[in-house]
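Morning F.,

Quick status update on the modeling queue. The single chain you submitted on Monday has been processed. Sequence for confirmation:
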Amino acid sequence: MPRPKLGELLLRLGYLTEEQLQGALEEQARTGDLLGQILLRRGYVREEDLVRALADQQKAPLVRVGELSPDPKALALLDPRFAREKRVLPFRVEGNRLHVAMAHPSDLALLDELRFLTGKEIQPYLAPDREILEALDRLLAEEARPRRAEEAQASPPAEMDLTLEAMPSVRLAQALLERAIALLASDLHLDPGETQLVVRARVDGVMQELERLPKDLEAPLSARYKVLAGMDIAERRRPQDGHFSFAFEGKRYEVRVASVGSLHGEKLTLRIIYPTGVRLGLLELGMLPEELALFQRLIRRPHGILFVTGPTGSGKTTTLYAALEQLYTKDKTFVTIEDPVEFPLEGVVQIPVQPKIGLTFAEALRSVLRLDPDVILVGEVRDGETLDTALRAALTGHLVLATLHANDALAAVTRLLEMGAERHLLASTLIGTVAQRLVRRVCPQCARPAPLSEEARLFFGTEAPEEELRGEGCPYCRGTGYRGRVGLYEVYAPDREALYQLGQGAGEGDLRQLAALRGHRDLRQVGLLQVRAGTTTGEELLRVLGLWE
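Structure tokens below.
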């Protein structure tokens, strides 16, 4: 495969290895993403090194956006939405020449477009697109503040949709969502306070504050998201939910919106569903080799039921989708029952539950069994009726994959019994349980050996390592010391003796003792191996698992 000039340049400068470049090029062929974005995402190069190489390649002077004070006259020459979409920041006007920071200064078509729109000759500079986005967000928020009194006196909520397009809040709503996506956030939160609206994003499982906005922007900003989601903007006390599609950088994202009244106003949470989420295969989830081999063996059983457990947002659906992807063949029928359908899967019949018309998980599952499926995915087992139907489906020759809320893989058995599962039926159908969590990865750019914390040493006991890799904080990880997340997986596959004891009345403690004798590894032990490998830290495991889990 021919290598682009950027890749050759990075190789020549020693920022990249031949193996890393080839891996990035293969991913680029699959996804169509920019090479630089892939290299950063994989942690192969530092942002400053990439920007320096780009400046050399594109023959454009490098500029640091944080050191600029953009001239309002320059900013006024371009629509803010266009500037965000194209990653351009006009910052100075000198006669007939406009100085512009750009993420892609060698884009001749864009330079012509800028020349046409502004009527100026363009002097391009290279700047990281992240810095450009952050500067535009900041300027947009500052633009909105002087007009907040005018917005507060705008139409009453029922009529607000008529005037929204004229408000800065429309652009701000888009900018905040784009910024959350640029950060790869899973959720965007609008938290109303007594005097301010706090905007936060959940990045790698941890909340980060993005903005503190004037209180007067709260109503129009919330109304904008609710209008997009098809919700009632006049209703601010009762909980509501909705969804909408959002296009950004040529990709389409699904956004689920939930609202609820609180002491100081209406809180909104926007869950962002990424279009690439279903592309993860089992090999990319982060399972250790032993757990991966066991999991693959379980899902290839011809019938039975497998439960994947974990808290909300721990990636259970992603794991089951990856399992379906590996199992899929054209000579079998695959059906999912979900609330809602997360992602479209080619060749799979996907059914969204609709409780308002009586289509619950249990009812949908009974209907699905008449379709003669081979593999059934049940999005969540919430009640005894669904559980009993799923177990009987597994007993009659179907492979059932389902999610369940439980603390760990062995606790899932207790949870199933508490929900009313008949012991003999469970012992006859259960092929395994999986517990999973997501932990943050140590930033590859600033990772350094460091002593294990005392809390982590207590957590691991006598198995505690002396040192771990810990991120010091750098621009690549935005000072957090972490970049991206990886899964922790505990896979429990009861053998015949365990299933016999389960049917005879054995409790969770008995099953744990037997599993330990068989070499079963729990979440703490799996996490310890990831710490030893330098993937995550002891403190991160404590945050996710808890000291006494």
